[in-house]
Design goal:
Length: 248
């Protein structure tokens, strides 16, 4: 019997965890697979091993892993496979496949432009964007955000787009805000490249509000998961074949 195990990142924020679970429950209601379970890599229960075992207990003989991650980095390349390794040994007869992270897709860049326009209305070339990534030491992260920056700039027509990160690589959020406020001549729109709310989005919101109180015309779009296209991508991933990890 076929099953899907969705794997989110996880957060210490109850509000953020609830948001992710509600999102995935909405996806589950639109996917025609008999067994579907939600799990998280860290910080939020149920964890991967519990979700996996629930699938098996419900009769799963094939499990498709669907990671809910925007980009391919350490979590996709190392952490999730490491968590799955002992489960593969424990349940060798269960066929296991996995889908890719979302990656840099045209429809996601379109969605970001829509979120920006919804937040701030039509932009002028003098407005500026600050894209905030989670951050990773994986070298592909900078490459991906270079593509994201270019794609969003093309769609919005602004002259200045900067990128900063919340962890692992520079520039960090504080420096990114200093750079953008020093260069900007018009409005500043901060774009958190995050799927759901949580402590990271709260941090961005607090620092944006501080800049606003100093007199800057600055706001942020909120998380990307609220755009319907993200749900569509997950549903498509759930229907895709996936890459074989192990078989009998």
């Amino acid at each position: 019997m076929k099953a899907i195990l969705y794997i989110g990142h996880g957060t210490r924020s109850k509000k953020g965890a609830d948001e992710a679970k509600q999102f995935l429950e909405a996806v589950i209601n639109q996917v025609d697979v008999p067994i579907q379970e939600i799990s998280f890599l860290e910080l939020t229960e149920p964890y991967i091993d519990e979700g996996f075992k629930r699938c098996v207990e419900r009769g799963a003989t094939e499990i498709k892993i669907v990671p809910i991650f925007l980009l391919t980095a350490g979590h996709i390349k190392q952490d999730i496979p490491n968590e799955l390794a002992p489960l593969r040994q424990q349940y060798p007869d269960v066929k296991l496949t996995i889908t890719d992270s979302f990656g840099v897709q045209e429809i996601i860049l379109d969605a970001i432009a829509e979120l920006i326009n919804t937040t701030s209305g039509t932009l002028s070339p003098s407005d500026s964007l600050l894209i905030v990534g989670r951050g990773s030491s994986d070298p592909e992260t900078r490459i991906a955000f270079g593509q994201i920056s270019e794609g969003v700039q093309e769609r919005t027509g602004v002259e200045l787009v900067e990128v900063c990160y919340l962890a692992a690589i520079e520039p960090r959020l504080d420096e990114g805000l200093e750079i953008i406020t020093a260069k900007a001549s018009g409005r500043i729109i901060v774009v958190p490249y995050l799927l759901f709310g949580g402590l990271l989005l709260t941090e961005i919101n607090q620092k944006v509000r501080k800049k606003e109180k100093l007199g800057y015309s600055i706001t942020h779009t909120g998380s990307l998961g609220k755009h319907e296209v993200i749900q569509k991508i997950v549903i498509e991933r759930a229907a895709s074949q996936g890459e074989l990890l192990c078989s009998r």
